Amino acid sequence: MRLLPAVAVLAALAFPALADEKYDQCVDKGQTDADYRECGYAWIERADAELNAAWKELRKISSEETAKLLLDEQRAWNAYKEKACLFWASGEYGTIGSVLSYPPCFAGVIEARTAELGEYLDSLKDQ
């Protein structure tokens, strides 16, 4: 089991833009697959909460026409998100893939969308 924290470091190196301090601290304290899984899903929940906050703010300041376009785009993105990173969770990469690689990948997809929505927000606020 001592190998798993080292693998977490390698996973963080594989996804450098996706570093999350709370995740790293949690994984460092973990000792079991369940611990690591809990760390990863907590990261995903944090990322999802940030996405939802950005989405709500964007919808609030968008025109009705833009809001409809954004909703179509978000629905398409949600379909993509649900399929993203599943190769890690497939079991082919074992516990390390599903417990230590899937959460950073999936959270990264969510964080990238949040950043994109942030760019939209910035452009609307600048008008």
Characterize the structure shown.
The chain is an all-alpha fold and about 130 residues long. It has a single domain (about 5-125), classed as Substrate Binding Domain Of Dnak, Chain:A, Domain 2, CATH 1.20.1270. The chain has helices at about 5-15, 20-30, 35-60, 65-85, 85-90, 95-125. Helix 3 (about 35-60) packs parallel to helix 6 (about 95-125). The chain is elongated, with a radius of gyration of 17 Å. Mean pLDDT is about 85; it is low at about 1-15.
Rounded average pLDDT: 85
Q: Measured on Cα atoms, how large is the radius of gyration?
A: 17 Å
Could you name the CATH topology?
Answer: Substrate Binding Domain Of Dnak, Chain:A, Domain 2
Number of domains: 1
Principal-axis shape equals elongated
The CATH class designation is Mainly Alpha
Number of strands: 0
Q: Approximately how much beta-strand content do the residues carry?
A: under 5%
Class computed from helices, strands and strand pairing: mainly alpha
What is this entry, summarized?
The chain has 127 residues and is mainly alpha-helical. It is 83% helix and 0% strand. Helix 1 (3-14) packs parallel to helix 6.
Give descriptors for this structure.
127 residues; mainly alpha; Substrate Binding Domain Of Dnak, Chain:A, Domain 2; 6 helices; elongated
Element layout with pairings:
Elements: H1 3-14, H2 21-29, H3 33-61, H4 64-83, H5 86-89, H6 94-125
